[in-house]
Structure formats: structure tokens, C-alpha cells
Design a protein that fits this description.
It is a single chain. The protein is mostly helical. It has helices spanning 5-19, 34-41, 55-60, 72-77, 85-97, 103-120, 124-136; strands at residues 47-49, 67-69. It has one domain. It contains 7 helices and 2 strands; from the N terminus they run H-H-E-H-E-H-H-H-H. It has a two-stranded parallel ribbon. Helix 3 (55-60) links the parallel strand 1 (47-49) and strand 2 (67-69).
């Protein structure tokens, strides 16, 4: 019997994103953040640090395809403290989404749809066009 390992991993990954509908990306800085794009493709927007410090948030759009929160508050409050950053991050994010009347919680479904659209809409042509746009914006020597 032939088993395609990649298909098995894909199924496991998709099931994970069905269970975890708001996966946190707890890093303060990340050059890209591929897990954000993967989760967005399954309709699960990530919670990321705000301020454009996580690369994939630019692709997905803060507040449109991912949920941006100020995770640096936790780091600033923990300077010289214990090494409990992960727990503090989870507690902070949980507090943001706990109240049932929370407007951010109500927007999550809309953000999930936008995240999926953005993640699946990025292909080689879009990548090339993005690079051309960057190059066109550079100053030119005379």
C-alpha cells in the first residue's frame, strides 16, 4: 500500500486549523511567518504583533487578514522579570477575546474570510508584480 506522506501531513495540518481557529504568532519580530499564511489559507487568521514587525502581516493585512495586538506590552512589562512570556502572551490574548460582547471577537469571521482570500490569492504573478512595484519605487540615477 502506497501512502503519500505529504497528503497525510496536509490532512493533519488542515484538521489542526479547524480546531485552532485563532493561532497566535507570539514572536515580536519575524521576517516572514509562513505559519501565518498556512493558517490563513485554511481560514484561520493569526494573532500577530502589531506595527508591521511580522512580515506576513503585510501580505495578509493587519486587521483584515490577521489580528494585530501589541505584544510588546508584555515584553516591556516583563523586562528583568521571570521567563513566563509565553503564558503572559496567552493570558493577554485570551483577555482580548473573552468578553462575549467584544467587537474584535465578532469580527473574527470576517477576518477569517479575508485571510483565506489573501493567502490563496498570492501566486507567482502576484509575487513578480510586487517585486516590480518595489523596484519601480526606487530612486533612479540620472
Amino acid at each position: 500500500m502506497y501512502v503519500n506522506v505529504f497528503e497525510v501531513l496536509f490532512v493533519q495540518l488542515s484538521l489542526s486549523y479547524l480546531v485552532y481557529s485563532l493561532p497566535p504568532q507570539p514572536c515580536i519580530y519575524d521576517a516572514y511567518g509562513m505559519t501565518m499564511v498556512e493558517s490563513a489559507a485554511f481560514g484561520a487568521p493569526s494573532i500577530v504583533n502589531s506595527g508591521g514587525k511580522v512580515g506576513a502581516a503585510s501580505l495578509l493585512g493587519e486587521g483584515k487578514g490577521c489580528i494585530a495586538v501589541d505584544l510588546e506590552k508584555i515584553v516591556d512589562a516583563n523586562v528583568g522579570g521571570d521567563d513566563n512570556y509565553e503564558k503572559q502572551t496567552i493570558d493577554y490574548i485570551r483577555a482580548l477575546f473573552t468578553p462575549m460582547d467584544n467587537p474584535q471577537k465578532a469580527k473574527t469571521g470576517e477576518i477569517a474570510k479575508e485571510a483565506r482570500c489573501q493567502a490563496l490569492g498570492w501566486d507567482e504573478m502576484a509575487s513578480c508584480q510586487g517585486l516590480i512595484d518595489i523596484l519601480d519605487g526606487l530612486p533612479r540615477d540620472g
